[in-house]
Sequence to fold (430 residues):
Amino acid sequence: MEKYVIKGGTPLVGEVEIGGAKNAALPILAAATMTDETVYIDNMPDEADTNVMLSAMANIGVIVERTGRHSVKINASQVSDYRIENEYIKKIRASYYMIGAFLGKYKKASVVIPGGCNIGLRPIDQHIKGFSALGATVTIEHGMINAFADSLNASHIYLDIASVGATINIMMAASMAEGKTIIENAAKEPHVVDLANFLNSMGADIKGAGTDVIRIKGVEKLHGTEYTIIPDQIEAGTFMMAAAATKGDVTIKNVIPKHLESISAKLIEMGCQVLESDDAVRVVATKRMRNVHVKTLPYPGYPTDMQPQITVVLGLASGISLVTESLFENRFKYVDELTRMGGNIKVEGSTAIIEGVDKYTGAEVSAPDLRAGAALVIAGLTAEGFTTVEDIRYIERGYEDFDMKLRELGAQIEKIDSDRDLQKFKLKFA
Ligand code: EPZ
Fold:
């Protein structure tokens, strides 16, 4: 099994280029099947989750052609099946975006119940509520979600929770429903806006994405387009935290600084310097961070996908910090691993109480999920001695070339898959 081995203690210095946003790419891929014409997508991240989605699409007859590492050409005029259930697709959450896409275009869809990161209960009641409001019949049978409708009709939908997934799914289906749908209490995340822009570039009529009321006038047909996915807010934020944790100086390029404001604000409050330019942010950390309190919230609040990374940084800050997770109840599983590295963190309910320590010490840890895995890597980069991070398949779901990008910033990290490699690494960096 592949793992990362890290020799900690080197400040990260230099420049890193951020890729396309995974959580925008996944619904955009699904939405690309809503036209029979060809769609060209650029800035597509080359990560496990997006690749699984592409192969699931190819399995049902979608013509998927990689025209470059980060560009893909999609044509869904020959779809042969409305049932999506291969063994890999089960593992990614975003498979359920095929329901919104197919329900919109074909008025029927059948998709295996999604998995995804195990970060807590992840109900889909708001998705079902939205599809039903548009006139679809939705059933869950034999592990599949089935949705069909004779016709989809616009509706006024009030989401009980500003769910990213439900907003996206409803937006796709409603784009091809009859009449004007209104989604209230819609999610405002950058990837929701990116999907709306993508659909609009295919001829959809969506207004208000990025606010909590989205208005969608259904159209009969969508057409081909060329589109570039936005930069990944969470990949960028992860490198910002890695720079801060290692007391480094990193310029994070190809970002939209506006999307990073809640992260930058916390870093500044902790005593870091964050310098913004048009499409880059530079994080400079020279001294020990100060404690701050953080509560994860929907956008534009501090993102839940950046919760483990900031906890790792605060674990080294002076004073006591409180980090409250308000979206997913099971997102502190990495705390046990961090404790093995010398962290002093207690979790009570949905709050982590963090008493900063002077240093982490290297240990063997394993990634419980994608973002927590990245956070443990950050801890390893600061730690005394060697850290191995197992189960890196989680990290590879959503970070392209994570180890390579870190190495380019001076980190001593390698991907290994044997004890021999481990010994070699230890000799090299002894
Ligand atoms: C998306 O998940 C992201 N995944 C997650 O990123 C991210 O953590 C999350 O949004 C919040 O920003 C993708 O985009 C593929 P939600 P999603 O629906 O859509 C509850 C990562 O690391 N809820 O906004 O599943 C739910 O339980 C991943 O990249 C319902 O109760 O998140 C949660 O408490 C992990 N009923 C809250 O809403 C529903 O029908 C927000 O979930 C739907 C959601």
The chain has a mean pLDDT of 95. Residues 23, 26, 93-94, 117, 119, 121-127, 161, 163-166, 187, 189, 304-305, 327-328, 370-371, 398 surround EPZ (CB under 6 Å). The chain has two domains: 3-19+231-429, 22-228. DSSP finds 14 helices and 24 strands in the chain.
